[in-house]
Each structure stands twice: as structure tokens, then as C-alpha cells.
Amino acid sequence: MKAISSMATRQVLSDLLSAAESAGLGSVALESVGGVDAAKRVAGGEALDLVFLADGALSTLAEAGHVDGATIRPLLLSQVAVAVPSGEDRPATRPEDVAFPDADGVRQALREASRIGYSTGPSGTALLRMIDAWGLMSDVGDRLVQARPGIPVARLLAAGEVDLGFQQLSELVGEPGVRILGVLPADCAVSTVFSGAVATASENPAAAAAVLDHLASAAAVELKTAHSFDPC
Q: Where are the domains of the chain?
């Protein structure tokens, strides 16, 4: 079987699919690309069995008949975190505390940053909407740097291209050259639900659905949390 996903879930899905194979559910070859590119390929009718994308993107593909809407299963909840360059090669770890107790601290950090990195996809869109709702777009808009599709914000931070970065926590943990300050506080939290679905182009939809069921089961929870995702 073949599957496609966005870059945000590549590592956790690789482990989850390996565990499903060990459970006797068959082998799935996973390709992870930028979420926009993945959706375009699915919409183009590429021969795939499973599709893993943000919930909204999957719903759009289901409406157009490219994935079976009845098979959509929420799998992973990802929170956006804030990070800065560390100047070290050690992999970033998840902090125990949050750097900002509330939205005021985040707004101040945005005002003080020289260059602000953010991602493509739903989390980046949500961040831009929040900045605009705060009335800060005129102040910081010319300092916003969107990472190229498939390029993590962590890479911009490590290279010194930005000095403040917003990215899903799962994509920051383990990356060298960054220090994670924490997830966004509750009063301005940004989260994304990633779901899976069986592609209508699948030649073995029953086998694909069985793999999807396993990924949504309690047996997969430990792997999800190990990759800094919350189970749905």
C-alpha cells in the first residue's frame, strides 16, 4: 500500500505504520511532502491507498470525491509552539514550562522580534489570523517570514534567518539549533487535528481501512505522545 502525508506528521506516521505492519496489517510506503502539494497530488488522482492531512484539507478532498469521507478518522492533535535560536547543535527538547503565561507575552515577543518565522498550512494561516485580529499586522507584517513548503521553521531559526519562530511542537522537538519556549498559552492556543482517510483510488480499501483503524486505536497512543502529539 501507498500513503501520503504532510511533513508535520512524517516521523510519527512512520513509526505508527511500522507498528501496524508488525501487527500483521501489511506494509505501507509513506511519502511526506508539503501539505498543499500532498492535497494537489491526491486531487490529481494519484494511485494512493491512505491520505494523512489536516482535518480541513481531508474534508475538502472528501467533498470532491478523492477520499472516502466515511473513513476519515481523527488521529493526532498538534499544538503550535514558540521557539528561538539556541546556537547549539543539540536536538531541541520539549520544555516542562511555558514561556508566556498569556497572550500579552506573545504579543510583546512579536513586537520585539526582528524576523518572525511561521509555517505553511493551517497552523500558519491560524497564526496570521490571530496577528491580524490583535491589530499587529501593520506593525509586524514586513517582518514575517513564511517557511517554504516542506521546510521546517526550525531550519530558519538554526540558520539565523529568523529570531522568533512559530511551528507545530512535533516539528520542533528533536531539531538542532533551536530552543523551544513552550506551546502557545491557553488564551491564544493554535492547534491542528490531523486525520487519515482511505483514498478513493485505493485498490485495496479494506486493507487500508484496517490500517487506519489500528492508527486510531488505543494501541497507538503511546507512540503519538512520544512524538509530542496528543491523541484524538
A: 2-76+193-231, 79-188
2-76+193-231 CATH: 3.40.190.10
Write b or e for each residue in 146-171: b if 16 or more Cβ atoms lie within 10 A of its Cβ, otherwise e: ebebbebbbbbbbeeebbbbbbbbbb
Cα distance between residue 43 and residue 165, in whole Å: 31
The two domains 2-76+193-231 and 79-188 share their CATH topology (first three levels equal): yes
pTM of the model: 0.80
94: three-class secondary structure by DSSP? coil
Give tens-digit pLDDT for 194-206: 999 999 999 999 9
Whole-number pLDDT of residue 25: 97
Q: Which of 116, 226, 101 is nearest to 169 (CA)?
A: 226
- Identify the CATH class of 79-188: alpha beta
Digit-coded pLDDT (tens) for 99-114: 888 999 999 999 999 9
